[in-house]
């Protein structure tokens, strides 16, 4: 197992402001909080102008937000010569913990309440080690990150975990994952609830990447398709600005769509899910690695395959080009069905974009409807390995702060020392 630690205070952007319903005894509380979460510093008069709520309601709601410590006074601004107190989101009043778990490694991070990454660590460990070992390692890193920030576990208001497999939205459990041996129906939220009194959000890794790329690199885009081509093939959908998971969390799993056998293939390959002829069994990193090894090429990992591609190895280039055509055809089906504005290609194999993008683009334009492609953009991911951890942090923040009851922040370590 290897690791790499960073502590850079990476800013991932402000959360979008989407006004929720304002009815009920606490109506407007979440709406006002979303204004402050978007990064604005506002007076009560400015809040009234933006929300249309009465002054008495705003007074009550801001008082309640001050009680939770989610909003804090932020100095004074002059209004017609008279000082008016302004307020801001208390982004440093607590922490979020996130872990983006992949097939062969993970990234674990500590974030402030806006989703800004304060510190992170990258670890190499196969997910096939099982949930007890992998989550135990995540838990150990959470403790180290909190200790490094002089923070206590009760400062954590939300935890986010992403995994390389299908996740049931309601339970946060992985359901029949092809590569996650021992994880089926494992209670991931329950594991973390032993040590933290906060919500635990579990999602598939491609969803986290999709949300991270959209929020940071394409915030104006309402319809986005993220395709992750790494060890496997996965995708995430952003529909009307929101992550689209479907009825149970299975939306967007194009890696296990059936592909008609290409002429150059003798026998349809068996996929890790147990079916025959899945897209991933042709175009996933593990499939390319399998074919390279069958040809006698010295390659032990997907990273080795990428290095061979970059060096111009003929076998690796041929396999990648074949994979790009199949990926493009599968993406074309999704483009016809979903009509995204932007298609983002990410994952380990996307690093060899010279051999993937041309084939993907040609297949998409050839097989998709003209109306669906006349304004489409097909681009590479910009957040790299951080896309998943960024998306997780923002998903957790969105979940924790977009509904009642809102969390009550505890005094910070500095406050406790002072008292």
UniProtKB/TrEMBL annotation:
SUPFAM superfamilies: Actin-like ATPase domain, Winged helix' DNA-binding domain
Composition bias type Basic and acidic residues, residue spans: 1-11
Record-linked Pfam families: ROK (PF00480)
UniProt region (Disordered), positions on chain: 1-26
Gene3D superfamilies: 3.30.420.40, Winged helix-like DNA-binding domain superfamily/Winged helix DNA-binding domain
InterPro entries according to UniProt: ATPase_NBD (IPR043129), ROK (IPR000600), ROK_cs (IPR049874), WH-like_DNA-bd_sf (IPR036388), WH_DNA-bd_sf (IPR036390)
Top-level taxonomic group: Bacteria
Entry's family note: Belongs to the ROK (NagC/XylR) family.
UniProt name for this protein: ROK family transcriptional regulator
Species for this entry: Arthrobacter cheniae
Lineage: Bacteria, Bacillati, Actinomycetota, Actinomycetes, Micrococcales
